[in-house]
């Protein structure tokens, strides 16, 4: 009897962007409309599994506010990407919505280390863009707040916008301020179907060694 490990690896799609950029909505469309089984292993799922005393875990925002958590965050990201790799190797497709950044108290190189954990697997790395003005509108609509007391854009929001797309090396980018979640997912499907083959994670593997 042949081992299931001989199956073709499952496709991995990683959606990287700021909070409220629309990543989760795109992931939902992919999970519910793309052919085959797609498991959502994004940041919200892993934060929900993290004990309260270690929150926000991998959702820690830029700014170096919790250096005490940073070594754990490195390990949690490693564990998440090992899980992603395990699913792919068993032929299961994975969509990941995440907000990678390296604006910790010291550079941690998490994205590059994560890329190395997916060596040899099919990974499409998608930058999910959204102008900061639209992010603020969505924060207001969702939480009823989005601006600082003086009416300015809060520093954490500005830091997210600057840090999450560094180094900005993607296979493709989408902009949720001009395209719906369905349209963004359709662009991703087209890239997976028609190529060219993705290469961003292969390049990221060699960085921050």
Give the SSE layout.
Blueprint: E1 12-16, H1 23-33, E2 38-40, H2 43-48, H3 70-89, E3 93-98, H4 110-117, E4 123-129, H5 132-143, H6 155-163, E5 172-175, H7 181-194, H8 200-204
Parallel strand pairs: 1-3, 1-4, 2-3, 4-5
Helix pairs in contact: 1-7, 3-4
Structure summarized in a few sentences:
With 209 residues, this protein is α/β, with parallel strands linked by helices.
Annotation keywords:
Rossmann fold, five-stranded parallel beta sheet, 5 strands, globular, 8 helices, 209 residues, alpha/beta
* Helix fraction bin: 40-55%
CATH class: Alpha Beta
> How many discrete domains?
1
Low-pLDDT runs: none
Name of the CATH architecture = 3-Layer(aba) Sandwich
Strand arrangement within the widest β-sheet reads 2-3-1-4-5
Instruction: Report the order of strands and helices.
Output: EHEHHEHEHHEHH
Secondary-structure-derived class: alpha/beta
CATH superfamily: P-loop containing nucleotide triphosphate hydrolases
Structure, explained:
The protein has 209 residues and is of the alpha/beta class. It contains 8 helices and 5 strands. It has a single domain (4-204), classed as P-loop containing nucleotide triphosphate hydrolases (Rossmann fold), CATH 3.40.50. A 5-stranded parallel beta sheet has the order 2-3-1-4-5, sandwiched between helices. InterPro entries: CPT, P-loop_NTPase. Keywords: Transferase. One of its GO terms (molecular function) is ATP binding.
């Amino acid at each position: 009897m042949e081992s299931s490990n001989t199956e073709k690896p499952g496709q991995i799609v990683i959606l990287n962007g700021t909070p409220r950029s629309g990543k989760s909505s795109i992931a939902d469309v992919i999970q519910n409309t793309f052919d085959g089984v797609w498991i959502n292993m994004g940041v919200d799922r892993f934060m929900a599994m993290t004990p309260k005393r270690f929150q926000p875990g991998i959702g820690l925002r830029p700014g170096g506010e919790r250096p005490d958590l940073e070594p754990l965050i490195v390990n949690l990201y490693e564990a998440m990407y090992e899980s992603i790799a395990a699913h792919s190797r068993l032929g299961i497709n994975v969509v990941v919505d995440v907000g990678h950044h390296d604006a910790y108290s010291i550079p941690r190189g998490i994205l590059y280390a994560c890329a190395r954990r997916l060596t040899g697997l099919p990974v499409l790395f998608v930058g999910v863009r959204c102008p900061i003005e639209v992010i603020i509108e969505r924060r207001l609509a969702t939480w009823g707040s989005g601006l600082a007391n003086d009416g300015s854009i809060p520093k954490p929001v500005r830091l997210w916008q600057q840090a999450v797309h560094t180094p900005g090396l993607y296979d493709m980018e989408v902009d949720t301020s001009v395209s719906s979640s369905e349209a963004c997912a359709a662009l991703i499907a087209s890239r997976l179907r028609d190529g060219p083959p993705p290469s961003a994670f292969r390049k990221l593997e060699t960085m921050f060694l």
